Amino acid sequence: MDDFPILEVRNLSKTYRVRHSIGRVETVRAAQDVSFVVERGRTLGIVGESGSGKSTVARCLLGLTPPTAGEVVLEGVQLGGLKVRKMRPHRRLIQMVFQMPQASFDPTRTVSSSVAQPLRRLRADMSRTQQGERLRHVLTSVNLGEELWDRKPRALSGGQLQRAAIARALAPDPDLVVLDEPTSSLDLSVRGEILSLLQQLQEEFNVAFVFISHDLEAVRVCADEIVVMYLGQIVERGTVEQVFESPAHPYTQALIAASRFATDEFALGPKGETDPVSGCRLMPRCPLAESSCSTEQELVPSGTEGRMVRCWKAV
Predict the structure, then answer these.
(1) pLDDT < 70: residue spans in the chain
(2) Among the residues of 62-184, which ranges form H helices?
(3) Percent with pLDDT over 90 in the chain
(4) Which residue, of 2, 132, 154, 301, has the fewest CB within 10 Å?
(5) What is the spatial distance between Cα 26 and Cα 16, in angstroms, rounded to a whole number?
(6) Are 267 and 261 in contact, with CB atoms under 8 Å apart?
(7) Cβ contacts of residue 52 below 8 Å, gap of 6+?
(8) Euclidean distance between CA atoms 241 and 226, whole angstroms
(9) pTM of the model
């Protein structure tokens, strides 16, 4: 198993056909030719505006949405072709923490009961005693006090519930956890605590993370590598240092400038409803656009080793 990375995504694409009230059918390219690798014990951050395709990629990774094309390979096993029965042993290897913890818990169950649910469902190889020990271990590791374990979700704060959600994801001992906007609904002070907790848990459980967020500073704290998406495409990929210290793609530059509230730095035009039929998808908004941008842009190496950029000017 150690010969493989935890996760390989190869040329993943997802399109939807949207039927409008007047009968017109529109094809939406939610993700197009997305490829990346997640190594053991490391964090890949996926950033971009709303509608960039981040959540679509997450749903494809978890098998909640079948990709239109491409492959999702977990621990060297291609998941797309597996039937339900053959998929079951791989279910525990990838878990998810959702954006809104209040909506992800059954209000009629206690917190400990909800956290124990994936243990009972996915770890039939463990005895009840072992499951109980694992449950106590993960709840303690996320710093959730014992007095909260037998309470209903409504009795916990947002930060406490998110700790419980993280414990639930870690309970079946996964190799990879997908974090979909895990701090966006939390207060600023609590957000910092959760980010610090995630770093501690990654070291303790040797688990890899896919951290999906529009909060660039949160991703910068936790991630080792960054994927920047725009309208379903990866426009830049590199290490945290490469992307944040010397952003190459105009879209990445604008995102970072906006996160710093830097009004005098690089800015894009207003966001359009659809992408152009051909050429660079950022072209309608990019102040650097030229006629050469009307041809299809490929994701190609740029500058320092490992950096990939979808912009001929950046290259």
Answers:
(1) 1-3, 81-86, 261-266, 272-277, 315
(2) 84-91, 111-122, 128-141, 158-170
(3) 61
(4) 2
(5) 8
(6) no
(7) 229, 230, 231, 232
(8) 9
(9) 0.91
Tokens 């009961």 correspond to 113
State the amino acid at position 160 in one-letter form. Q
- Distance CA(196)–CA(192), nearest Å, equals 6
* Residue 120: count of CB within 10 angstroms of its CB: 15
**For helices 111-122 and 158-170, what crossing angle results, to 10°?**
20
Q: Identify the three-state secondary structure at position 15.
A: strand
CB 56 within 8 A of CB 30: yes
- Please, are residues 248 and 302 in contact by the beta-carbon 8 Å criterion? yes
End-to-end C-alpha distance for the chain, whole angstroms: 36
- Pairing state of beta strands 69-74 and 77-78? antiparallel
- Per-residue pLDDT, 82: 65
Q: What is the pLDDT of residue 262?
A: 54
Average pLDDT, the chain: 88
Locate 160 and state its tokens: 């406490």
- Is the Cβ–Cβ distance between 91 and 75 less than 8 Å? no
